[in-house]
Amino acid sequence: MSSVVQERQATGRTGQPTGRSGARAVLRTGFWILIGILTVIFVAPLLWMLVNSFKTPNAATNPDGSWIPNPFDTSSYRTLFRSGSTPVLRWFVNSLVAGLANTALILVVDSLAAYALARMEFFGRRIIFGTVVGTIFLPGFMFLVPNFLIVSKLGWLDSL
Fold first, then answer.
1. Structural domain count of the chain
2. Out of 2, 32, 59, 98, which could bridge 55 as a Cys pair, Cβ 3.0 to 4.6 Å?
3. pLDDT in tens, 123-145
């Protein structure tokens, strides 16, 4: 018998020793079972909120907790989207425009700054680079109040 055939018989089809492949299969199966359980734990509350959004207010607060809306009611969505006091679609468009403009501006400015820091030699380059890297270690909420004050002083509150 050739050495290749003997090696295949000793290791199985996967090329791994046959004794270890069973343990790996058990670990892999356990991993996917754990992932499935975690998926149910994290997705179930979202599904529950979605199901409750199609119930009447009384049925949504009923303690028996039925997963099937009876009767199927879309009045909450009609109220939400047609009400003058809650212009949700306008808020969504405003957020989309502001987010896209912010992303585009950051991409342009940051890519130019990154190019300058990576390719150009100038006085203070290491200090600027160290400062930029150092700010990564600061939590983002530290900048909320200063950013709010800047936006307020510029008169940009409640505007695009």
1. 1
2. 59
3. 999 999 999 899 889 998 999 99
